[in-house]
Write a structure and sequence with these properties.
This protein has 292 residues and is α+β, with helices and mostly antiparallel strands. It has helices at 2-27, 36-66, 78-86, 142-148, 154-158, 189-199, 203-207; strands spanning 88-90, 94-96, 112-114, 120-122, 135-136, 151-152, 184-185, 233-238, 241-245, 248-256, 260-267, 275-280, 290-291.
Amino acid sequence: MRKIGFCLKIILDCFATLAMTVIALRRDKQVARNEVTKQSRKYQCTKTVSFLCVISITAVFLCVGCNDGGVESGGGDAEAYLKSFKGSADGYGVIVGDYDYSLSCGNRPCNKKSMPDGKVWMTENLNYTPSSGNSWCYNDSDSYCDKYGRLYDWATAMGIAAKYNYERWTGGNVKWRGICPTGWHLPSIFEWRNLVNAVGSPAGTILKSEDGWDIYNGKNGGTNDFGFSALPGGRRSGINGYDEAGTCGFWWVASGDADFGNNREMPYDDSDFVKEYGTIKEFGMSVRCLQD
């Protein structure tokens, strides 16, 4: 629809230019003989504008016909990009391919539960290995993926081109499916805030699992009142650099700027809070999906 609107705009602009030129010619009908040369030039201008309009309109329609399956170098349409990225696109423009989306946490469906915000959240981290993009097991060990799920850079979590780890993403971020299964999406910053507000204070303690965390002040977890079961999956913070498994959980959010992707963080030594940060988008962090 946007392409059709663009074509119509060009057509209307051309007709407007022609109309203005014709009006100018009629207005100058009574010019003196010494103006004949100018009139002739205006007539030639009109012919030129007409010719250029025809060429422009033809080129636009040809462009539309040829570009349906492609992506422009400047970023282009998100859904078109995703079609080229993984073979096909579905739902909110997120990838489908050789992956059975019912098996999102290893070789089984992810656990899920309704939360006080009225939404259904996954109660474990996504553990899906995509065929494109960047993802890792903490310390390159499968045992960490089994326990904490995989770590993804921001662009992979969003299901978009790797270049957006270094550029501003101008596509959608509301119910943006990203790497999540069909019927799920990567939570927005506002959906995370709604969850934190809905569970009440101290949200960090309430959302953490009861074990699996390093011991701090005699405790190794939270109260997990609603079964969210937040775990400290750590992160990949540089080239083959991993840190904070057991001490901190990091989750990507479906928004960011040119340099940083938004994320939520739960540290073990500041257990009452669910912190909100911007982090270098190349870092590897966990993903929790929210049901549409």
